Amino acid sequence: MVGFGYDIHRLAAGESLILCGVEIPSMLGTVAHSDGDAALHALTDALLGAAGLGDIGEHFPDTNPLYKNADSKQFVRRALELLHENGLRLINIDITLILESPKIQPYKEAMRAELATMCELPLRRVSVKATTNERVGFVGRKEGVAAFAICQVEE
Ligand code: MG
Fold first, then answer.
1. pLDDT of residue 63
2. What DSSP string describes 12-70?
3. Which 8-state DSSP code applies to residue 76?
4. pLDDT < 70 stretches in the chain
């Protein structure tokens, strides 16, 4: 089975930018109840989606004070636990980040390593890609960052 996830977060000055569990030096960071890691939120939704287990908002509501400034790795870890409890094993993950700046290239390998550890996967089964939005739309105007994630699981 496959699962798919998507997330966006608004960007603002004076906030931190954390993507795939890696903090990136940036003038703009994500505005969020949690740490605003759109990539890990998309991944959490992909994992839950593969197992037919709902979405991140149902499992970790942003109205819950427990998740204020939460490290989003815990959402991924919990989604993986749920997969395992449902007799499913993760095969691979593939994430695409969309943001205008800064350039993600220098951080990709650190992100892959972080994700591999988080998901207990070998590096070759962890993919991180990044693109700009060609200055078009809200991402292009640096008002937000978007992330897509897909994963495969097997029984
Ligand atoms: Mg989110």
1. 84
2. EETS-EEETTEEE--SEEEE-SS---HHHHHHHHHHHHHTT---HHHHS-TT-GGGTT-
3. H
4. none
CA of 86 to the centre of ligand 1 (A): 24
Q: What pLDDT does residue 61 have?
A: 87
For ligand 1, the distance from its centroid to the CA atom of residue 71, given in whole angstroms, is 12
* Two tokens, residue 41: 């939120």
CA 128 – ligand 1 centroid, Å: 18
* The pLDDT value given to residue 108: 98
Name residue 8's amino acid: I
**92 CA from centroid of ligand 1 (Å):** 21
Give the span between the Cα atoms of 11 and 60, in whole angstroms.
Answer: 21
State percent of the chain over pLDDT 90: 92
Residue 115 C-alpha to ligand 1 middle, in angstroms? 17
Distance 7 CA to ligand 1 centre (A): 5
Instruction: Report CA(100)–ligand 1 centroid distance (Å).
Output: 18
